[in-house]
Amino acid sequence: MNWIALAGITAAFCTTISFVPQAIKIIRTKDTTAISSAMYSLFTFGTLMWLIYGLFTKNTPVILANGVTLILSSIILFYKLKSKNN
User: Fold this and answer.
1) Quick check: 62 and 50 in contact, CB under 8 A?
2) DSSP of 11-24, one letter per residue?
3) Is the pLDDT of residue 65 over 70?
4) CATH code (residue 47)
5) How many domains in the chain?
6) Which 8-state DSSP code applies to residue 36?
7) Does the pLDDT value for residue 86 go beyond 70?
8) In the chain, what is the greatest distance between 2 CA atoms, to the nearest angstrom?
9) Of 68, 71, 73, nearest to 42 (Cα)?
């Protein structure tokens, strides 16, 4: 593995794992007042697009990172939209 691939994998891991604390906090507290639904909607859509890009280019780090990030950001967005409707 070359250093460029290692840098990509490290970046993917860090940016993906950064969503875990936020997702856990929102799942536990159900409090989404401090986050923007517009931001999370755009971010989740962008992550979906990166996942599709990764699938078409067969780029494993992009696929894995964005697949996991899409799940985590979708959970956060779900709770945000659910709290908006209540």
Assistant:
1) yes
2) HHHHHHHTHHHHHH
3) yes
4) 1.20.1280.290
5) 1
6) -
7) no
8) 50
9) 73
Question: What is the chain's mean pLDDT, rounded?
Answer: 91
Q: Given a cut of 80, is residue 1 above it in pLDDT?
A: no
User: How far is Cα 9 from Cα 15, in angstroms, rounded to an integer?
Assistant: 10
Residue indicated by tokens 């899409």: 70
Domain that holds residue 26: 3-85
Q: Is 82 buried (19+), middle (13-18) or exposed (0-12) by CB count in 10 A? A: exposed
- Chain centroid to CA 63: how far? 12
CA pair distance 67, 53, nearest whole angstrom: 11
Q: Tell me: the pLDDT tens digits for 24-44?
A: 999 999 899 989 999 999 999
Q: Which two tokens stand for residue 49?
A: 């697009």
